[in-house]
Design brief:
mainly alpha
Length: 240
Amino acid sequence: MSIGWMIGAIVSAFGISIGCGLAWVLKHIQRGFAFIYALCMGMIIGLLFFEMIPESMELGGWITFVIGVGIGGLLFQYIHKLMGKITIITDNHQKDIFVRSGVLLTISIAIHNFPVGIALGSTVGTETENIMLTTLLLHNIPEGIIIFTPLLLAGFGIFSWLLFTTLVSIPIAAGSLLGQLFEIESSYLLAFILNIAISIIFMVAVKELSGEAVKHSSVISCLAIGGLGLGIIYLYLNLI
């Protein structure tokens, strides 16, 4: 059997790690909570509307989108409520927000990466495989920035990089292995899983990040900075 599933996980981890490095740079360039909250919010919205939602619509259409997003919203509420009940992370409200955001984003990106892995597994041994791997690498960079920016701001270090990169990359390997073994081709199933991730990511951006950004700044300022983050993702995705 080809080791393409393992290569996919390694490529994903490398892209996420580059994003982590860029998040580390961002942390040291700008320490203002409102700026980073708003910038991450804009980057998340850009990633959703310029990449993930169009991909979902192409795979499954509107009905699958609505069902998946609805279930994802319920799942977010459950996870959010569960974390609030059983997890006492720090004695600092800002750090609590950062950690919760980072964990929720990791979960949602991991969910998103599973159908990506399935699609990758179906291309193993074909000319499309190298194109898919290059796309995976480049598209994991902004996801790495989004995940690790709040985690680094919460004070997490090298251990968090290893842990969260592994958590995000394992679904790529698992999905790719399944795609390679069973040749899963149901676009509706892939879209459904992707839509759950879209919903969770969107809820994190709106409920976790935008609200906190407005608390520490003004609505106009947050919209402007969020627009900057959205523009960065737009330019990045179009340049690659």
